Amino acid sequence: MNSKTAILIFANSAKKEASLKPFLSSKDIFETLNAQTLRIVKKAGLPYFLYSEKQQTGQTFGERFTNAIQSVYDKGFDTVITIGNDTPHLTTNHILKTVEKLQKHDIVLGPSTDGGFYLMGIKKSHFNVETFLKLPWNTSKLNRSITKLKASKKLNITFLEVLTDLDKASDIKLIVDSYRALPISIKELLNVFASTEKKIVSKPTFFVENFILQQQFNKGSPALLLL
User: Fold this and answer.
1) Distance (Å, rounded) from C-alpha 119 to C-alpha 222?
2) Rounded Cα distance, 153 and 207, in Å
3) Cα separation of 183 and 205, whole Å?
């Protein structure tokens, strides 16, 4: 394993995630996801650094994310693989595949179904702070911007499989209904949410409207890691 490669877990605490994504039981779900993320990272056998809202610096998501990556390079690493905490189907194998692909590619991206990315592996030689800060973070234009960047910078980019991030309540059904296996602890929590949601829908309209309002959130997912 390359000792010059480190993993950056760019992920908020469960309490913070629950405030940004206030769907039912979101705090419990993200507590479980945070624990699961640490488990899969430790199994990869690489040095890792966790940057929650307490370690992040900067006013915008782009600034906080860029600063976090730069700080890992400043610790002496040549390559950073960055992930979030909101991709239930993420496994250690995705990280190990990224390490392998980075031997022949400049950048490795794990695209998510919402147009962002749940994983990014990038070498220090291809990391440009100004370019990063100009990218349309947390927007639907992100994927298109990366494609243009690939062509203009002549970067050798490769992709992992597409996975679904857990950003809003409706994502839970997509994740649970997927053919991919889920850790038991996560699957049980998501199934409880799905069951509770059905009961809420059957209640009077004002309960339904209140529940829908709770689904609104600020799209600040660390899974939108792109380049």
Assistant:
1) 9
2) 51
3) 35
- Which residue range is the domain that position 80 belongs to? 1-227
Q: Say whether 27 sits in a helix, a strand or coil.
A: helix
Least-confidence region, from 82-96, 104-118, 168-182: 168-182
The model carries a pTM of 0.81
CA atoms within 13 A on the CB side of 112: 32
- Number of independent structural domains in the chain: 1
CATH number at residue 151: 3.90.550.10
Phi and psi for 20 in degrees, rounded to 5? Answer: -85, -30
Which residue's structure tokens are 């890992």?
Answer: 72
| Rounded distance between C-alpha atoms, residue 42 and residue 92, angstroms | 9
Full DSSP string of 32-78: HHHHHHHHHHHHHTS-EEEE-TTT--SSSHHHHHHHHHHHHHHTT-S
